[in-house]
Amino acid sequence: PRTAAVIPAAGRGVRLGPGAPKALRALNGTPMLIHAVRAMAASRAVSLVVVVAPPDGAPEVKTLLADHALPERTDFLVVPGGATRQESVKLGLDALPPGIDIVLVHDAARPLVPVDTVDGVIEAVRDGAPAVVPALPVADTVKEVEPGPPGAPEPVLATPERARLRAVQTPQGFDRATLVRAHEAVVVGEGATDCAGLVERLGEPVVLVAGHEEAFKVTRPLDLVLAEAVLARRRA
Ligand code: CTP
Ligand code: MG
What we know:
The chain has seven helices and twelve strands. By secondary structure, the protein is α/β, with parallel strands linked by helices. The longest helix has 15 residues, at 221-235. Helix 5 crosses helix 6. A hairpin with a 2-residue loop joins strand 2 and strand 3 (30-31). Strands 1, 4, 5, 6, 7, 10, 11 and 12 form an eight-stranded mixed β-sheet that branches. It has helices spanning 32-41, 58-67, 85-94, 115-126, 176-184, 195-202, 221-235, and strands at 2-8, 26-27, 30-31, 46-53, 75-80, 100-105, 131-137, 144-145, 156-158, 166-168, 172-175, 207-210. The model has no long low-confidence stretch (mean pLDDT 96). It has a single domain (2-131, 168-235), classed as Spore Coat Polysaccharide Biosynthesis Protein SpsA, Chain A, CATH 3.90.550.10. Cytidine-5'-triphosphate (CTP) binds next to helix 3. Cytidine-5'-triphosphate (CTP) binds at residues 8-15, 22-23, 52, 81-85, 88, 107-109, 217, 219.
């Protein structure tokens, strides 16, 4: 089965603070997006990478891909993204050619995911799971609250048992037809924060496999410090 990776990279990166779109910011001199593209292309199973660029940034992203060394066995496509991650992923899916039967969806903001994690997800889809998500146990205890106005104390509603919670990462891997169906079934105003959440709504099974600490998402400024430290350690 042929596998493609869709990389949503169209976000602004509001939580990272002012500057270029998050995916285009440098980590140790190389744009985060290039690290993420290389992480997907590092898997020998991935024959195509579709980058979903900021809505007005597709030409810039095409230039970036042309200017960086990437594996020759992999094809690359760039499409403009949308206003939400979910829309951006949908635009990436729409660009997939026939003949692809497994789709990975990977955040550009997780530039350091190891290839073993990528291969583990692909293998689980090949073994028959329609939706596969890398995940880790959570370190912090998590509270459910009644959200209030910013800054106001928030009443706690419940404390789910931590041992039963997992923090999910990407790449999430899917049987292509299942993922397309999940996106087509979306009801306006009832999106999900990840693709697997859409598949769950179809009633299809979603399974978790081992994630990796280095697949963390670069979200806030401190995450940039951590990402650069991980890269420095890899080069050492
Ligand atoms: N993303 C996207 N299109 C959007 C919004 C997000 O392709 N309209 C992508 C981001 O580029 C990122 C991934 O979805 O690679 C995960 O989103 P997140 O980490 O939330 O990134 P941003 O939305 O850019 O950050 P923020 O929420 O802080 O603005
Ligand atoms: Mg976001």
